[in-house]
Design brief:
CATH topology of the largest domain: Adenine-n6-DNA-methyltransferase TaqI, Chain A, domain 2
Oligomer: single chain
Structural class: alpha+beta
CATH class of the largest domain: Alpha Beta
Distance between the termini: 17 Å
Number of domains: 2
Number of strands: 22
Strand content: 15-25%
Radius of gyration: 25 Å
Shape: elongated
Helix content: 25-40%
Strand order of the largest sheet: 2-11-8-9
CATH architecture of the largest domain: Alpha-Beta Complex
Largest sheet: 4 strands, antiparallel
């Protein structure tokens, strides 16, 4: 693709984009059935991920139409950008952008908004400490280099090809995860299955409390020299790897963050267990006492077998059923004791773990491919549109 930037012109954002600020006084009567909040926007995919029903009640009134670009003005660094694929109403914390098509290809607009340059400008012009927001009056003056319409078509085709590649990898990842989930759920059935690896003579019915123990090593992380802190927000749903953490001195360390974990320990979020936050630590750190540090009794149960079991639907449903509290349900360690499962012998567990861990490796490779494609997209956004 050959681009001649000498022919590009510098323009303000307001010259090529309209910020729609139309509000509906009666959304239902005007035919708007769906509403969108910030939680429904996923900048990674440029898609609206779910919506609410207006008939269920909402205070939102700002109107958007199919093809508009929705941008979360609150905490702009979260990159809440999506292309609307239906008509609806949205939160006042969402800016609705519509291109002036005589100047700007409609399909190029979301990529301008998603670029690091635009996001950094939005962050820079935001005000407020707890929940910083940017404003249209500031974004309107953001300067961009605008290519001729013919070159815009070429740029759109490039970015759409990358988006297609990302979607293909995501599709593969979903299929492999579905396979993994099906296999894991089979392990904890009343009649466990995993191909032909289970033989009734080699399995025993056990309770969770008999084969696991909670590790409670209370330390002073400063004196101990710990750097990494793991809280609930650092653990992702259905992901056994800890990918984010806080750093001592840069993170608000409360008195609860004093439980040591070491490589090989399983961390389990005891609050809102439906979020399925289970991780196998591969570094040393501290967590709060609401994150359980768990070890299997490996003469009976392999640690690597346990991590998979704890992601099964049956384990999750059991933990939900014995949790306490309504708004922020939590589970006591002892409440897990009576979860029962059939365990094969250690040699069979090793074979099963080998298969499941290989599937995890495939998922990790797909994640890396996806990350590479997303990094490529951001680099090209900066190189071409920056």
């Amino acid at each position: 693709m050959k681009l001649n930037k000498d022919k590009w012109i510098k323009v303000d954002f307001k010259n090529i984009v309209i910020c729609v600020d139309h509000h509906s006084k009666n959304p239902i009567a005007e035919g708007y059935n769906k509403y969108v909040g910030l939680e429904n926007i996923n900048g990674e995919t440029l898609k609206i991920e779910g919506y609410g029903n207006v008939t269920d009640g909402t205070t939102f009134s700002k109107v958007f139409t199919e093809g508009d670009v929705l941008f979360g003005k609150r905490r702009a660094y979260l990159k809440k950008v999506a292309i609307a694929d239906f008509n609806g109403i949205c939160s006042s914390d969402i800016l609705v952008f519509r291109p002036k098509v005589e100047f700007l290809n409609a399909k190029l607009l979301p990529f301008y908004v998603l670029s690091n340059d635009f996001i950094n400008y939005a962050v820079k012009t935001s005000s407020g400490s707890l929940s910083p927001r940017t404003r249209w009056k500031d974004l309107a003056n953001y300067e961009i280099l605008l290519p001729p319409l013919e070159e815009q078509k070429q740029i759109v085709a490039l970015f759409q090809s990358i988006e297609t590649a990302i979607e293909a990898v995501e599709g593969q990842e979903r299929k492999v995860k579905d396979l993994s989930k099906k296999l894991i759920d089979g392990l904890v059935n009343d009649k466990p299955t995993f191909g032909k690896m289970f033989e009734r003579k080699n399995i025993n019915l056990v309770n969770y409390g008999e084969v696991t123990e909670k590790i409670m090593r209370k330390i002073d992380p400063v004196k101990y020299g710990i750097e990494r802190i793991v809280a609930g927000e650092h653990m992702e749903t259905d992901d056994l790897k800890i990918r984010n953490w806080g750093i001592l001195g840069k993170y608000c360390l409360g008195p609860a963050f004093h439980v040591l974990f070491t490589p090989g320990d399983i961390l389990y979020g005891s609050r809102r267990t439906y979020l399925r936050k289970v991780a196998l630590a591969d570094f040393e750190g501290v967590c709060a006492n609401t994150t359980y540090v768990i070890r299997a009794k490996e003469e009976i149960l392999l640690q690597n077998y346990l991590k998979h079991i704890m992601l099964s639907d049956r384990f999750t449903q059991y933990s939900i059923s014995v949790s306490k509290g309504s708004t922020n349900p939590y589970i006591n360690w002892k409440d897990l004791d009576n979860f029962s499962l059939y365990l094969p012998d250690i040699s069979t567990q090793k074979e099963i773990v080998d298969v499941l861990d290989r599937i995890l490796d495939i998922i990790e490779q797909l994640k890396q491919q996806k990350t590479t494609l997303k990094n490529l997209k951001q680099k090209l956004l900066s190189d071409i549109l920056g």
